[in-house]
Every structure is written in C-alpha cells, then in structure tokens.
Design a protein that fits this description.
It is built from one helix and four strands. By secondary structure, the protein is of the alpha+beta class. About 30% of the residues lie in helices and about 35% in strands. The protein has a four-stranded antiparallel beta sheet, with no helix packed on it. A hairpin with a 5-residue loop joins strand 2 (about 45-50) and strand 3 (about 55-60).
C-alpha cells in the first residue's frame, strides 16, 4: 500500500514539474517581422512570424534591418 502511495505521489510531482517546464518555454508574445534590403530601404526582402506556441515561419532573406510587431499571447491555463 505504501509503495502505491509513493508511486502516485511521484507521478503527480513529476507531471507538475514537466508541465511547468514546458510552460516556461512558450513565448509571451507572437512576433511578426518584415526585413528590408538596407537601413533606408522600403524594399521588403523577407518576413518572419512566430506564434504563441513557438512555431516560426520564415520567408525570404533575414537582414539586420527590420520592423517588428508584437501581440501578447493569452495566458495558458497552466499559468493561472
């Protein structure tokens, strides 16, 4: 009986730790970037989008010249 209680306790503690670890790595914002050819350029050469689950889609070139927009992600049930 004591072994079953210990096992159940370990499973609960382990699942809580694992869930918290995954929640810590999710982004707080979705991000959208448009990359430009140069510092004064209006020519878009690439773009990137990262959603709230962390999935990133990138098209074209990445340059140091970009505009970025951020939208806060909704809180997950884990954080509440």
């Amino acid at each position: 009986m004591k072994n079953k209680i210990k096992l159940a306790t370990l499973m609960v503690v382990g699942s809580l730790a694992l869930t918290s670890a995954f929640a810590a790595f999710y982004p707080t914002h979705s991000i959208e970037r448009e990359y430009y050819a140069g510092p004064n350029s209006t020519q878009i050469v690439g773009s990137m989008f990262q959603n709230c689950s962390g999935r990133t889609i990138q098209i074209g070139q990445v340059t140091p010249y970009y505009d970025e927009g951020k939208i806060p992600c909704p809180k997950s049930p884990i954080e509440e």
